[in-house]
């Protein structure tokens, strides 16, 4: 066994992919996070088994960890249940149990290592995200993504000095568990992807310089429709304000060119200011064209709306 038992918890997820199963990035990310939690629980049981006098501290650790990780574990189980077949889940549990039994078969070398592990868990129960796998935060809020921001787990993207944001100043709140990535489109200043870059949900910050013939452009159903590609279907629209500026929201579903039978569902928030068209876009997909994305877009709409409501322009 490693000199300090919690090292097991750091390396255990790496063993999950010795199997022949191939998962998409989001499912693999979830499995790694689930393995982390299972390894953590198993290591606690090992401490209690080998050092019975530490059992009260183990119970205390379990109680604190359940408060911190209970929602994450519940959401992970639900997500994997939806994504994997029953046989795949059974195989996954068998594999994890086998690996854990192998890793924990030898005794802990010193009692001090067990104390070190319990102290490590105490830090984790204080929810120091720097010490946790990134999947913990991602799946903690998987059932209600907007709560990640309302609970204070938020970064602020600022376009100042950004190479793709000349003469543009916009500040946008983004959940901490979403990964910032460069986008290929020149008009897209920045994009963010859920689950630390492994998810299928994205937030895009897009800015267009309006040509002279579109100066004074007004946002309404007719004008916005003229900007959309023919493969886009408008589902609904709404007028609102963002940073005290009149804005327009549309929900659309777009077929993806060059990818047969695939589509994306999007909610876009548009603002016209100083002859620039700003677009904050939250999207789900791509997904099969026959898949109903209505439930998923409703789950993420509160997050997308919250981001839009807290966006600031230097106007």
Describe it.
The protein has 315 residues and is α+β, with helices and mostly antiparallel strands. The protein is 40% helix and 25% strand. It is built from nine helices and ten strands. The protein has helices at residues 6-11, 25-50, 55-83, 86-103, 111-125, 134-140, 147-150, 221-225, 294-309, and strands at residues 154-158, 170-175, 179-181, 188-193, 201-209, 232-242, 245-255, 262-273, 276-288, 312-313. It has a seven-stranded antiparallel beta sheet with strand order 3-4-5-9-8-7-6, with helices on one face. It has a three-stranded antiparallel beta sheet with strand order 1-2-10. α2 runs antiparallel to α3 and α3 (55-83) crosses α5 (111-125). The protein is elongated. The termini are far apart. The model is unreliable at 1-20 (pLDDT under 50).
């Amino acid at each position: 066994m490693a000199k300090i038992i919690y090292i097991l918890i750091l390396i255990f997820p790496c063993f999950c992919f010795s199997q022949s199963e191939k998962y998409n990035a989001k499912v693999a990310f979830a499995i790694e996070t689930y393995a982390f939690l299972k390894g953590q629980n198993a290591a606690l049981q090992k401490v209690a088994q080998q050092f019975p006098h530490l059992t009260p501290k183990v119970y205390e650790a379990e109680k604190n960890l359940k408060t911190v990780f209970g929602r994450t574990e519940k959401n992970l189980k639900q997500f994997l249940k939806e994504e994997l077949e029953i046989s795949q889940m059974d195989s996954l549990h068998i594999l994890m149990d086998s690996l854990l039994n192998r890793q924990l078969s030898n005794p802990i070398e010193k009692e001090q290592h067990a104390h070190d592990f319990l102290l490590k868990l105490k830090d984790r129960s204080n929810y120091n995200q720097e010490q946790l796998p990134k999947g913990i935060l991602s799946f903690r809020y998987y059932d209600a993504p907007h709560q990640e921001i309302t609970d204070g787990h938020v970064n602020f993207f600022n376009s100042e000095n950004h190479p793709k944001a000349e003469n543009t100043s916009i500040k946008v709140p983004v959940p901490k568990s979403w990964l910032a990535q460069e986008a290929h489109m020149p008009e897209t200043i920045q994009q963010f992807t859920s689950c630390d870059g492994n998810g299928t949900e994205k937030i895009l910050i897009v800015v267009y310089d309006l040509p002279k013939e579109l100066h004074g452009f007004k946002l309404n159903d007719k004008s916005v429709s003229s900007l959309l590609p023919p493969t886009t279907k408008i589902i609904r629209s709404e007028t609102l304000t963002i940073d005290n500026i009149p804005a327009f929201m549309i929900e659309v579903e777009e077929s993806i060119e060059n990818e047969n039978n695939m589509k994306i569902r999007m909610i876009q928030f548009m603002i016209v200011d100083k002859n620039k068209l700003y677009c904050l876009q939250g999207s789900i997909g791509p997904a099969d064209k026959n898949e109903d994305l209505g439930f998923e877009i409703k789950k993420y709409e509160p997050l997308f709306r919250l981001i839009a409501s807290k966006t600031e322009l230097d106007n």
